[in-house]
Amino acid sequence: MNRQIQTLIRYEWKTFVRNKFQLLLLVITFLFGLYAIYYGQSEINAQRETINAVTALETKEFSQYKGSFTTEMENQTQEQTQDIASRPEYAWYRHGYHAILPPHDYAPLAIGQRDLFRYYYRLTGTSLHYQLFENELANPVNLLTGNFDLSFLLVYLFPLLIIAFCYGLFSSEKESGTLALLQIQAVSIRKIMLVRMAFYFVLITGLAIFISLIGLCSSGNPFTEENMLPAIAWVIGTTLYCAFWFGLLFLIISFKKGSAFNAISAAGCWLLLLIVVPAVLNVIVTVKYPLSSATLAGLTRRTGLENEDDEEESKEVIMEFLAHKPELAGSDSLMKNNMLPKAYAAFTTLKDINSQQEVDHYNDKVAKRNQWTSQFLWLSPAVNMQEILAEITQTDLNTFLDFQNALADFHGKITDFYFTRLFWDRPILLEDYEQLPVFEMSEDLNRGNIIWFGLGKILIAAGLVFLVGFFRINGGIKK
């Protein structure tokens, strides 16, 4: 580092420490960062507590069922427990299995879709669609405003901090009359602006990385195999995103206008990239792929056989169901034992089969919306960055769509387990509890590609705006 650069950095440091307002801004931003980490961890810890509670309930429920096989019946309650444990006509709709999407260690840093979509379901052998679309109540104001997590701070507030620190780097010299003195120095204006910009880049990006490291270390161990790559991607993403905004400010400064022009232009870019572009994309995608939840809401209405005492109606429903499941049709006692439970099991399955087209149509529109919107992420590095942070923390929309697809497979395992015993009139034995259905969800192997490709787009955007500013800033100025 030559002497001139050292002098410039020393001057910038003295200017910075004497500006109490800038120091206050950094302190407030740091405190906001700590609060954002605390808020995110509070939200996710509440979800973890719920997950632990429902898991404990399921463990206790099935322990009671298994215990009923070896316990001598002493009262009516124990007899009822044994009936539910061993008789498939009760078990198919009483045994509940929890399918859970556990949060990633770094989910508190970017809550993403975890407050909007359900992260656990209790599934039985009854209608899958009824259980999927029966929503829990949530505060609509919270859903509308979103969450003040670390990703919000980085994506929305740090650009404002960069604007506040850098919009006057050139114009202040011009307006204070010191620009002429700078022009006669041996160092070019471009070099002076680059050094000053680099000083604040290190300062503000360093603060963003420092807050991120606090969040990463307090939310999980960044040195584990599961967390290391996400932690590295988070730090790289934060650096590139700050670099984009510094590059954009450098481009605005290169026009060599006054402070008012720089401030308004920078604020306009912030509004365009973080408010206008997402809002316009949202309006277009809403018109292009309209979604109506009225049909899905209809699936959550309880329905049943018209007349439970009518055996002919029950037989018709069972026969219609067996046309889809011929492997369950071989029992001699098919139409003799447990007619009503079989009819209801058949009825709920037929209801799912008949409504599958509507559900597929709805899910297809959701997927197309997501796919269409992702094509235009390059329009706004801010939106792109938000999607990347959600991908890193596994709180993105695709994760929840994969979760719902896995639920359908899991429900199929549940119905196969119970319907085989129900329609073949076989009791559930103690050893059958070693073969209970287990929820499984495959890992998204494309996640890494999405993250690195998205970071590449931010890098290109940052490089472009910086290079244009780099070649513009010396125009019209000698040295």
Task: Provide a descriptive summary of the structure in words.
It comes from Reichenbachiella carrageenanivorans. The chain crosses the membrane at residues 21-40, 150-170, 198-216, 228-253, 260-285, 450-471. Keywords: Membrane, Transmembrane, Transmembrane helix. This is ABC transporter permease subunit. InterPro entries: DUF3526. With 479 residues, the chain is mainly alpha-helical. Helices cover 69% and strands 2% of the residues. It has 18 helices and 2 strands. It has a two-stranded antiparallel sheet. The longest helix has 49 residues, at 20-68. The protein is elongated and about 105 Å long.
What is the strand and helix layout of this fold?
Elements: H1 3-18, H2 20-68, H3 76-86, H4 88-94, E1 97-100, E2 120-123, H5 128-132, H6 140-145, H7 150-166, H8 171-176, H9 179-183, H10 189-219, H11 225-253, H12 259-288, H13 294-299, H14 311-322, H15 339-374, H16 381-392, H17 397-423, H18 447-472
Antiparallel strand pairs: 1-2
Helix pairs in contact: 1-10, 2-3, 2-7, 2-10, 3-4, 4-17, 7-10, 7-11, 7-12, 7-16, 10-11, 11-16, 11-18, 14-15, 15-17, 16-18
